[in-house]
Amino acid sequence: MTKHLFFGLTLQALQDLLESLQIKKFVASQLTQWVYEKNVTDLNLMSNLSKDLRAKLSDIFNFETLRLETKEVSKDEQTVKYLWRFEDGLAFESVLILAPDRQTVCVSSQIGCPARCAFCASGKKGLFRHLTAHEIVEQVWRIHRDLQQQSGQSVTNIVFMGMGEPLENYEAVTTAIRILTDPSLMGLSKRRLTLSTVGIEDKIYRLADEGFGIGLAFSLHAPNQKLREKIIPYARKYPLDDLLKALRYYSQTTKKDITFEYTLIRDWNDQPEHALELAELLSSWQCTVNLIPYNPVEGLMLKIPSTKNIETFRRILTQAGIHHTCRYTKGRDIAAACGQLALKNTEQLNLQ
């Protein structure tokens, strides 16, 4: 019998599965308490389950399927990068970002990425496959357990800003969101989840209509369609004007402001004329622009913007009344900063 992946099951799906196997429905609550409240996946330790039931459940479920290969901690101890590997040799990364008031997991949703943004390591070799809902949730759960064991703290925030384009893996990502925010499972607040996308128009509308109520960050990176296509080849499929309409719909439907992410690349999109055009583009929006100075990626001939250009860019946005932040780079020394998560050891695979 093929085993079911536990972390990919919503509470309802878990209850339905147990009932179909003639196991009483309340066992679902026992299992979720052990796993999500006590961080226990070893059935032998689940003392309120009978020995026969534990044996039966061991034939039904797989719990931990990701192999942790490496764990790197940045020099300032504010960033931890986890490298997970599968039996087929593929690997991907996720990141824990520590701050005084929050512990954030930067989650991957795909192995590789189809967007191929010019500044990003994740898409250099394209997309290999989607991660399942189980694999997405397991990332969070494993990091949460590790954090609790190390410091007694809990994961508070999730950002879908790791490897991959989340909206191209819509079903798995939204199932993971349901699991992560279910009070009976991971129990995270929807207000503390943010999904970042380069823009998949129909999926933005669908995400709004399905009422998940999570934050949305749009990877803009350029103030016009022509330049955006140069930085994000995927943008050729979705005109910026159409995406802005979808984002406006999302904001109005969910009552949430959009965050516009803008990676500053020297001589590409960091000049005063770019800042002026960006200010004009967003003049009617109540939003935040998150400026991200480019983080170096091996093999890419791009440059970090100068401090002067960053300051000039920010001054223009301020004068135009555009609310913005400039992201403090964490984890650059362990290649865990924005744009630096990479597909590992895939040279032997025939990636397209």
Characterize the structure shown.
The structure is a single chain. This protein is an alpha/beta fold and 352 residues long. It folds into two domains: 4-62, DNA polymerase, domain 1, CATH 1.10.150.530; 67-334, TIM Barrel. It has helices spanning 11-20, 27-37, 51-60, 133-151, 170-181, 201-209, 225-231, 240-254, 272-281, 307-319; strands at 4-5, 61-62, 67-73, 79-85, 91-99, 102-106, 110-112, 127-130, 157-160, 193-197, 215-219, 258-264, 287-293, 324-326. Strands 3-4-5-6-9-10-11-12-13-14 form a ten-stranded mixed β-sheet. Strands 1-2 form a two-stranded parallel ribbon. The chain has a two-stranded antiparallel sheet with strand order 7-8. A hairpin with a 5-residue loop joins strand 4 (79-85) and strand 5. The chain is elongated.
Q: What overall form do the CA principal axes indicate?
A: elongated
Percent strand equals: 15-25%
Q: Mind telling me the C-alpha Rg?
A: 21 Å
What strand order characterises the main sheet?
3-4-5-6-9-10-11-12-13-14
Question: Which regions are unreliable across 5 or more consecutive residues at pLDDT < 50?
Answer: 339-352
Record the SSE blueprint:
Blueprint: E1 4-5, H1 11-20, H2 27-37, H3 51-60, E2 61-62, E3 67-73, E4 79-85, E5 91-99, E6 102-106, E7 110-112, E8 127-130, H4 133-151, E9 157-160, H5 170-181, E10 193-197, H6 201-209, E11 215-219, H7 225-231, H8 240-254, E12 258-264, H9 272-281, E13 287-293, H10 307-319, E14 324-326
Parallel strand pairs: 1-2, 6-9, 9-10, 10-11, 11-12, 12-13, 13-14
Antiparallel strand pairs: 3-4, 4-5, 5-6, 7-8
